[in-house]
Prior knowledge:
homodimer; mainly alpha; Neurolysin, domain 3; 3-stranded mixed beta sheet; hydrolase (chains A, B); zinc ion binding (chains A, B); Metal-dependent carboxypeptidase (chains A, B); carboxypeptidase (chains A, B)
Amino acid sequence: METVAELKRDFLAFLKKKSALQEALNLVYWDIRTKIPKKGAEGRSEVIGVLAGQIFEMEVSEEMAAFIAALAPHKAELDEVTQKSLEESSRVYELNKKIPQEEFQAYSKLVADAENIWAEARAEDNFAKFEPYLTEIVAFKRKFVEYWGYKDNKYDTLLDQYEPEMTVEILDEVFGKLRTAILELREKMAKEGTRPDASGLAVRMSEAKQRAFSEAILTKMGFDFEAGRLDTTVHPFAIGLNLGDVRITTRYDEANFKMAVFGIIHEGGHAIYEQNIGRNLIGTSLKEGASMGIHESQSLFYEIILGSSLAFWKSNYPDLVKQEPAFGKISLEEFYRAINISESSLVRIEADILTYPLHIMIRYELEKALINGELEVKDLEAAWNDKYEAYLGIRPEKSSEGVLQDIHWAGGDFGYFPSYALGLMYAAQFFDAMQKDLKDVEAVLASEDYSPIREWLTEHIHQYGKLKKPLEILKDTTGEGLNPDHLIALLNQRYEFVYKLKN
Amino acid sequence: METVAELKRDFLAFLKKKSALQEALNLVYWDIRTKIPKKGAEGRSEVIGVLAGQIFEMEVSEEMAAFIAALAPHKAELDEVTQKSLEESSRVYELNKKIPQEEFQAYSKLVADAENIWAEARAEDNFAKFEPYLTEIVAFKRKFVEYWGYKDNKYDTLLDQYEPEMTVEILDEVFGKLRTAILELREKMAKEGTRPDASGLAVRMSEAKQRAFSEAILTKMGFDFEAGRLDTTVHPFAIGLNLGDVRITTRYDEANFKMAVFGIIHEGGHAIYEQNIGRNLIGTSLKEGASMGIHESQSLFYEIILGSSLAFWKSNYPDLVKQEPAFGKISLEEFYRAINISESSLVRIEADILTYPLHIMIRYELEKALINGELEVKDLEAAWNDKYEAYLGIRPEKSSEGVLQDIHWAGGDFGYFPSYALGLMYAAQFFDAMQKDLKDVEAVLASEDYSPIREWLTEHIHQYGKLKKPLEILKDTTGEGLNPDHLIALLNQRYEFVYKLKN
């Protein structure tokens, strides 16, 4: 019979092994998207299968079940990290074990096929081709929710998997407020605003110059180049291998400096989060971001709250002009207004920050209706197009620019989209709290070192990894629950300036 | 009860899984030596431990033992690939299982420590510091040979692990001949030869130009850039992840173009080997080079036989001059003579091709004596220094340039060194056979595409992977056993020209 101390030691060793396999798998993912030669990809999928399979097997293994059963009665005797690790392991175990194995296998095969079919359907602008697959995926998801169980709303169960403790009740309220505010602001901008002139941004900037400029910003932000890398890829991402190795990627367009510069600032925010997770969480399942929404709050904090602020460009615009003098033809204010133009668009990932939440709300409402049986996949495309017309005043003419634009549903990721908008609201709330603590954030941004900002974020958010739940972090840091008012105030303030609105 | 067909299927699936883990591990190794940020390395060693541990556990598992026991009686019913895979798995199983587990663990710990101590001792030029570790390693190796068993010479057992079926009997004879020939040639060069003037090589060439020049050569050689990469590192190497992803690395010295150019040609030879292994061997333990010696024969074939030949430079020297006009101050023949200067040196990895085999023979003789109990580690440094004086006419003054220069013994790799010299002899033998088949190799080298050479190597060597034993490849390809005469003839011919020897 093992003692609790021995059990704990073995449990942590088990998690550490799982963590090492995850690190290897993440390296494989990174390599596939940055370095792998064309002919290496086919063989590498076998490696992904084996490593992902091993991780999954560990998560649902009898060994894991035995740890959970043996340690659960002794929770009070365990330190916090072991306690929370046990809770997390238990959550994942339950999630997977509640689905009958043959159904899970059928579902796994379905989504693997569906992602390929989705890509074909998108290329052909043919929703009908993808429809039967999505219909099956939704049917599985509805059934899974029954297995997993739910309280108020079936969709809550899915939300919770990406954003623990988030609910339809909360989201309906905050999204309602946010939507109203955005629509009002957009109306005012259309009626009374002056659209900025974007012609001053039509400057070619070489990849090397964009890179030099972005790296200098990353350094000021506190990205540790001894604990990370920056590479190029097709679809940019950040990935943490271990806390001393968090890699970001970008894509350069010499005709549009915004893509790489803001992309790097965004991915840098993700990476700085992981570089600063507490070392006491190494090797556990807690050495990650608290949730998708909190992770996104860090990237958006740097990209949108800081990186798109006038204060930020006051200090960085001269450096941009130094790198590429052609930018110097316009004034700082003209430049700043130009980079913050907002307009309706069909494609989420190209949207500006004022219209972006509307793209998310559309998806949220459709997902919620699908999962609750209030909408069927056969009616999805019409519903999508109607919502774009209602919220953004434009209607997709091609499926590829409409319902087929995102891969998420093909991968079965229902409940994921809201995280993007949550991240934005969290970020605005954090910024409010930070301003109270730091007093003069503008002075920090005028300096060559943004350490006070990074340190504040580490103190309140980064260090905890998954030790705290998202709403716990929010409460501890801001004293509030989810509150869209901060984002609304920021958007109003920003666009009043950008669009020269009368008061 | 499983049928033979079912057993075979399960056995191959088991090997495929092991192969996938090895691929992941090789990616980790590649990344550590090319891309990993400084602070990522510590965490990554955990990943290596887990993956290497899993591979080892599979190799000595009860599952593997069961496959071997169940399939061995049905060998005749199996196809060749499964048969040879079974033999290889069985060989590795026996190798590991014959050592008592606690001794193997003690040994593993010892070599891990010894490699660190060796690095310190080398930095401090202090053999005494390393001596107790090496003494223990040799004691283990002597004991292991008893467990593994041996026929004629104890050292044969170790040789066989790197170069199957190679023996002391064969090596003593061919090394004897080769040594005599080299010493005679060196004497002749010293007495009658004209040492080339190397001053024409003192040209700075930028990394970008060296890279462009080398990549063009790699392409002509047949290196498939869609199935590989070229990166920079500190200690260059080639590594195969899968047959569609074989990566090479190099180091650039702008003051010495030879380092990167010849290094890339060398590693390119290794990589072209693996890129052309038969697709029928994917996922098995046979999808590798036949042996260390055969692998080295491919790199040396390209580096030494082709890449250091006059015919090669006849066509490539103009391209070098085009990239870097300063090389054009000397004639092709002066250039060719200069890159082939030979002189005694203390450090193996910096040696030219004429003296290189002497460095190997010294190590071979010392290893053989150590394993057979004819030499003790306490007397090793003196023996080493004496042999350098006898064979090369120079005596190391520092351990770091003498007995401590190579890591091999610290890692327990006794029996490995001869492979380097074997590779050179194999390469010369292959060249002889190739010339008979292709008739005009010089014309191929004058062209922009060396396909006929690559195809010949693939037909006779590459495609077989580990399906054939080294001496089997040699026999099938050249009709001979190991024969140093071809290398001797090549060295004589080359150095007679380079040193303008009278006949």
